[in-house]
UniProtKB/TrEMBL annotation:
PANTHER family, alphabetized: CITRATE SYNTHASE (PTHR42871:SF1)
UniProt cross-references to Pfam families, sorted A to Z: Citrate_synt
Keyword Calcium: no
GO MF annotations, alphabetized: citrate synthase activity
Keywords recorded for this protein, A-Z: Transferase, Tricarboxylic acid cycle
Swiss-Prot/TrEMBL catalytic activity: oxaloacetate + acetyl-CoA + H2O = citrate + CoA + H(+)
Naturally occurring in which organism (per UniProt): Pelodictyon luteolum
Active site positions: 311, 367
Pathway given in the UniProt record: Carbohydrate metabolism; tricarboxylic acid cycle; isocitrate from oxaloacetate: step 1/2
GO BP annotations listed: monocarboxylic acid metabolic process; tricarboxylic acid cycle
Name of the protein described by the UniProt record: Citrate synthase
Family: Belongs to the citrate synthase family.
Length: 447
């Protein structure tokens, strides 16, 4: 039995022993370590918290991103995402996330210069890139090449040195679009395009992606701005799966390239950064508006998920999805409307009126419309999670920097509830009691 004490503590009574404990509460949380004193006997290990997927466990204190999932609020360093998407550039937002404040003109100019002057990669990266199969998924290439950057910059190991950290941050934000574009051009068999520092951050990325024989590539300004806003919307999202991966791997003291490679790996999965790709595949599979009701029925029957819907934190419309939906219409003005947009709109309309989705508070998330925009801009589906990774880089780096400097942090090492066999003696193969195995174990052993 637990009662909340207004003085900032919990009084916890262990009904197994009748003993009572005072557990301090700070910032709306208690430390699960304070529960370790609750024991049945002296040799009892003590009470553990059990929370698969961290549904109700804060792994850190953070001052970077605030989300109120029930009210659909997202802020970076206190600034509402809507205002940043309307007024800021991605590089300015990256500065905000990493340094904590919006830059003045001079600081922004220096910051932009520094990022742009780290866009080139070592020539050996080209050889490394060429080692991948012609049809390698660009996100797999990103996981490998971002990790490989650590071998080019051994100085990055000095993670407690502030100057070194700042340098690696600039290098990573500068080089990620170059690696991303190279991964695409490798898969297409196109020659790589060198960075053009006269262009904006998204403009340079579009140039490295799509420049062919023209002397001067000039990006379409509507698409350039749309991409910049998409990067802003993806720049951070507090303790999501990939950020947790960056922090957990970074907690071992490894360099930021390796920690960020772990973030890329986490982002590759269809439940996370792969969702926008999965949305397009789902829309193509549905094929036409008249098939939408049938598809919704199959989702409700459990045959799959409505990709781009639902979120661990948002139990309301994802504020990023609202902004992206607006951008989608602006982009389609330039590129022509995709029939997939109409299927998406119909899916959204039906799902938002359907009891199944209402009861579970499932709303469109950031990925529901982003894939449609990327596709209209000419990005192949395989590149979608890579685009997400470019946007998320400043978030990962600001979270990693915060983690490294946080004296509360230790190497990430969760506990487990061991529910396996008690100790037993090894026996020779001929005397192992196969006939005593239950069906389930026999099944596993068949593998
Ligand atoms: N379609 C249909 N049903 C869903 C969906 C969905 N997209 N998402 C959740 N549900 C249902 C579940 O089946 C479950 O139903 P039940 O209670 O009857 O079993 C209930 O809603 C809760 O689902 P959980 O999986 O427990 O929710 P969780 O918070 O763990 O998962 C997640 C969140 C992974 C995002 C989930 O909603 C999902 O798989 N969505 C589709 C993939 C997607 O769009 N991912 C992108 C997320 S945003 C991002 O990473 C940038």
């Amino acid at each position: 039995m637990t009662t909340v004490n207004p003085s900032g503590s919990l009084t916890v009574t262990d009904n197994r022993t009748g003993k009572t404990y005072d557990i301090p509460v700070e910032n709306g949380a208690f430390k699960t370590m304070d529960f370790r004193q609750i024991k049945l006997s002296d040799d009892d290990f003590g009470l553990l918290g059990y929370d698969p997927g961290f549904l109700n466990t804060a792994s850190c204190k953070s001052a970077i991103t605030y989300i109120d999932g029930d009210r659909g609020i997202l802020r970076y360093r206190g600034y509402p995402i809507e205002q940043l998407a309307q007024h800021s550039t991605f590089l300015e937002t990256a500065y905000l996330l990493i340094k904590g404040e919006l830059p003045d003109k001079e600081r922004l100019a220096v910051w932009s210069y520094n990022i742009h002057h780290h866009t080139m990669t070592h020539a050996n990266i080209v050889k490394f890139m060429d080692g991948f199969r012609y049809d390698a998924h660009p996100m797999g290439i990103m996981v490998g090449t971002v990790g490989a950057l650590s071998t080019f910059y051994p100085d990055a190991k000095n993670i407690m040195n502030e100057d070194s950290r700042k340098l690696q941050v600039r290098r990573l934000i500068g080089k990620i679009p170059t690696l991303a574009a190279m991964s695409f051009r490798h898969s297409m068999g196109f020659p790589y395009v060198l960075p053009d520092n006269d262009l904006s951050y998204p403009g340079n990325f579009l140039s490295m992606m799509f420049k062919m024989t023209e002397h001067n590539y000039r990006p379409n300004p509507v698409l350039e701005r749309a991409l910049d806003v998409l990067f802003i919307l993806h720049a951070d999202h507090e303790q999501n799966c990939s950020t947790n991966a960056v922090r957990a791997v970074g907690s071992s003291g490894v360099d930021p390239y390796t920690a960020v490679a772990a973030g890329c790996a986490a982002l590759y999965g269809p439940k996370h950064g792969g969702a926008n790709e999965a949305v397009i595949r789902m829309l193509m599979e549905i094929g036409s508006i008249d098939k939408v009701p049938e598809f919704i029925k199959s989702v409700k029957a459990g045959s799959g998920r409505l990709m781009g819907f639902g979120h661990r934190v948002y139990k309301n419309y994802d504020p990023r999805a609202k902004i992206i939906k607006k951008i989608a219409f602006e982009v389609f003005e330039e590129t022509g409307r995709s029939p997939l947009l109409d299927i998406a709109l119909e899916l959204e309309r039906i799902a938002l009126e359907d009891d199944y989705f209402i009861a579970r508070k499932l709303y469109p998330n950031v990925d529901f419309y982003s894939g449609l925009i990327y596709k209209a801009m000419g990005f192949p589906l395989d590149m979608f999670p890579v685009l997400f990774a470019i946007g998320r880089i400043p978030g990962w780096l600001s979270q990693w920097t915060e983690h490294v400097q946080d004296s509360d942090q230790k190497i990430a090492r969760p506990r487990q509830l061991y529910l396996g066999e008690e100790v037993r003696d090894w026996m020779p193969i001929e005397s192992r009691p196969r006939n005593r195995m239950d069906e389930k174990k026999l099944d596993i052993c068949r593998l």
